[in-house]
Amino acid sequence: MPVTDVTHDLETRTLTITADFAAPVARIWQVYADPRQLEKVWGPPTYPATVVDHALEPGGRVTYYMTGPDGEKFAGYWEISTVDEPRSFAFADGFADEDFTPNPELPVSQNVYTFTEHDGGTRATYTSTYETAEGLQQVLDMGVIEGATSAINQIDVLLAP
């Protein structure tokens, strides 16, 4: 299991997940840079993702939906703010309606994903910051820790030869 640590802090409104992979930084970067690979790891196994648009560049947008076991679709988007290939990227991640219009009823997180060399592989740090403690608590109640952990742990399967 690649996820080695999960912490959340309502005071700072952050959720941080750390994972270690037995692959070089450039390979982990490709998981996020390639929409077909991203589909295999974005969302927990029972809610597979379909990436519709993918522009991993400053000012770019990624749109996707996850399909639940009963066929219900849950849409979301990333608005990319910075990219430092292959080391990091930052983006807003939000919930959306079926045509990818942001849903103002649900919280948006500001995310920074970083990839650094560590013990011959890559340490990935996924940090999400919410505007309010209530927003963070809302996604915690929705199961974000379990969902994100199971999604990230799928990366090992993708990396297997």
From TrEMBL:
Name of a matching Pfam family: AHSA1
Ranges where the Activator of Hsp90 ATPase homologue 1/2-like C-terminal domain occurs: 23-159
CDD domains per record: SRPBCC_CalC_Aha1-like (cd07814)
Recorded superkingdom: Bacteria
Classification via InterPro entries: ASHA1/2-like_C (IPR013538), START-like_dom_sf (IPR023393)
Family label: Belongs to the AHA1 family.
Protein name per its UniProtKB record: SRPBCC domain-containing protein
Organism: Rhodococcus parequi
Phylogenetic placement of the source organism: Bacteria, Bacillati, Actinomycetota, Actinomycetes, Mycobacteriales
